[in-house]
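FAQ: What does the model actually see?

It sees only this:
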Amino acid sequence: MRENIYLQIYNEYSSRIHSGQLQPGAKLPSESELAESYGTSRETVRKALNLLFREGYIHKIKGRGSFVLDMTRMDFPVTGLISFKEMADTLGGPSRTLVEETVQEPAGSMPARQLQIPEDALIWKVIRAREIEGERIILDKDYFRADIVPFLSRDIAAGSIYEYLEGKLGLKISYAKKLISVEPSTEEDHRLLDLKKYTHIVVVRNYVYLENTVLFQYTESRHRLDKFQFVDFARRVRR
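And it is asked to produce this:
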């Protein structure tokens, strides 16, 4: 019975947070108040609150209580290598890709430096805005080595490039190095994204490697500050 009550508390409060009935920053009742309300012990309440905390619904401030976190932010895995289409499929809401540019051209200075190729080597440059629930909140700027990816089209870019690379070209995409920073937004960011009042943007730079360790893609993924939280799982190593 005690386990059923703690799950009841968890389910009811997670549902209220998801539905917007409890807004970000709202304070939850105290352990004593919840115990009295549900006719259970503080130990059972504490178990439910700990589960809400672990699942990212609330945060606890010692001496002040438990407060609702912003659940409108979408989790973006730091260590995972996932396409926008794969991420959007997990969200459930409406999303689409708006292709700004798909062109093959000489690499030039910046892409050549990032991909470690000569400046006159051919690359594919793909610029896409990602729209989720009616707002353009991600700008992806991708650069692919043309000797490895000989063809791309606007239609491919509007769908899933990774599905094409892995399914049609048979490329074995293996791992990526990621650098994350917060930087001032550019004119291009404001032109292609719905940035609202935000003057800064989260930039995730991806260096993507094939199974044979060849660096074939460099990406700048530019995210509106309020819509994403970057998540990872860390375990302490005992020495």
